[in-house]
Amino acid sequence: MNDSKVTPGRNVFRCAVSVLIALVLLFPMLWMLNTSLKTEAEIFQNPPTLYPHTLNLKSYIAQIETGDFNMFRSFLNSLIISLGSMLIAVLLAVPASYAIARYRFKGHKSVLLGFLVTQMLPVSVLLTPMFIMFRNMHLYNTWGAPILADATIGIPFSVLILKNYFASIPRDLEEAAYIDGCRRFSAFLRILVPVAKPGVAVCAIFSFLYAWGDLAYGMTFILEQPMRPITAGIFNFMGQYGTKWSYLSAFAVVSMIPVAIIFIFMQKYIITGMTAGAVKG
Amino acid sequence: MNRIKAFFRHDNIGLLFALPAVVYMLVFVGYPIVHNIILGFQDVDVMNFLRGKKNFIGFENYAQLFHDEVFFKSVANTFVFTVSCLVFQFLIGFALAMFFNKKFSFAKPVRGILMMPWMIPMTVTALMFKFMFSTKVGVVNNILTGLGIVSENIEWLTDQGIAMIPVIITNIWIGIPFNMILISTGLTSIPGELYESASIDGAGPFQQFTRITLPLMRSTIESILVLGFIYTFKVYDLVYVMTSGGPVNATQLMSTYSYKLSFDNFLYSKGSAVANVLLVILLLVGIVYLRITSRGEAAYE
To answer: Which chain B residues in 59-88 lie under 8 Å from chain A, judged by CB atoms?
Structure first.
């Protein structure tokens, strides 16, 4: 904060401390990866081994072959559900956030308040009524139900983030487009949306992650294991083979793949999203 | 027709842009909330869930909750869980934010990596910690017995008296990145000159912290705590996967109890009633949050 000059010695010391902190905090994830590569016998060793002495990929391979709890199938289900709900969230949130940022229409305040409040809702309040609704819509036991339900988390978040992006775009840009003969909607599509791209990326990432991490909706609205998302698959698997830690940890590692990919390639968006979403609200 | 056109001519055209999202939220969130409130006043269970007459029984469900020990236990647990998580994730997050706001080469990349726990599915987090806290193969017990701190394996998740501890620790782990990053942003917004002039005036690090950092961070801290309260108070997946509320309701939260009533015992109306109580508490806290943020924005403008 107030130390503008850092001596090389102090720099190295701080770097070392930060790595130590990271190792301690991320230990659970490293431990899971470690466990997924061990044999069942090695997992039960005490004291535990710090790395797999015999590398065992069976926990991953067995999942491709056997039917019941095929984690790659669950992975695919999760991917479809998350992408679907991401698409809905972005498509609806982009125009809505533009409207909130730019126009003082009738009911402006209550719309904004509505999005704020929905972010605070507990999933328990929505589960039973949604369950009944999706049954009536014949969406029970289909991907449609969790897709529609998960988007209700992504939409308010995206609207609240994107409205700040649209508000920061100078009005001149829009007016220049009108002069060139653009209609409002095409000006919005051709001029404003491209400028707000980083914001849209943040929304897409978070809508995806919310859906990817969801358990309650996927578990409640889909009962058939082959259709279930990966989180519900893991939960089911725990119920049936509670102590088969080699398979369970492999399952967990696979479910973290998209998170890791997003993290590696789009890290800057994540920090923007976390801060913008919360403080400003 | 002209009237409609006139209505949408100026600012009201915004309504057209906002309409799809608003309608979507009304259908998939607004309607379910209303329905849930109605369910709370009905007698819906597995018998009349899909077909059949649903009777209005007034406040009967809520009256039953008042005589339900498990419900009171779940309310108490939810508060214990929320407050403990809040205190520790905030303090640890604050300390880490202070550290990572110092200048060193790894500050940004390592702080970025620490966001991971917040991003991975809660189900996976629950699984990881359940494994780490398991009695026989758990690495926590391995370490504790290996170092000679305890002589026998502790039954972390099966002992009623202590099962809440691992659950709280797990949720703190998830909450640390969130707190750290928000506090970190708040800290960067404090102008460095303040600290410089303070140290010229002879203020030590502790005094700088209590006289400059804390007062200037007040509104950030308030909104982090209230928002953290809301997010923690409604946690569901984590506890459901780790303990399902057990052993013997020792970790039963309002959210998990509501789910259990509705989808394990098929007492849909009773489950809805519990969810409604949860909702009312959250809305009250939500009002506090809106007050704080609108006050902050007013000061900012």
So the answer is: none
